[in-house]
Amino acid sequence: MSAEPTPSGTPAPGAPPSSAAPTTPTESTPSSPAGRPSRSRVPLPTLRPPTGPPRKPTDARRANALAGRINRGGDGPCYGLVTDDGRQYALHGTGKGTFAVGTTVRVTIGPADPAADCGPGIPATIVDISPVV
């Protein structure tokens, strides 16, 4: 074999003839299976940017459910609770357990007992209280 390059017009030995150029497929693109709609080429709609913050809260939250830290604790029946947003509650509940100051709790509250005075804060009665672990 010679080390000379072959001219660009003549094929190299063992190469397929130049008439074997790539061809385009003659079959049409496959259609959607029977019973299924074909995919649309129309772009999907998009949402516009919001014009401002929502007017009402978007998360459903029970009005009688609180979470916060005990700031006046002990074995009851009065407890103090401060929520993350700084609201202070004066909670009353007989036989609800002992909670040390600083304990994070989840509380379900009810209407305040007018006969109970548990100190400063929004008065409420404890329906259920449990520590958050």
Tell me what you see in this structure.
The protein has strands at residues 65-72, 78-83, 88-92, 104-110, 122-131. By secondary structure, it is mainly β. The chain has a 5-stranded mixed barrel. It is elongated and about 70 Å long.
Ordered list of secondary-structure elements with their pairings:
Elements: E1 65-72, E2 78-83, E3 88-92, E4 104-110, E5 122-131
Key terms for this structure?
133 residues, 5 strands, mainly beta, five-stranded mixed barrel
State the order of secondary-structure elements, H for helix, E for strand.
EEEEE
Strand order, sheet with most strands: 1-2-3-5-4
Mean pLDDT across every amino acid position: 81
Structural class: mainly beta
Give a brief outline of the structure:
This protein has 133 residues and is mainly beta.
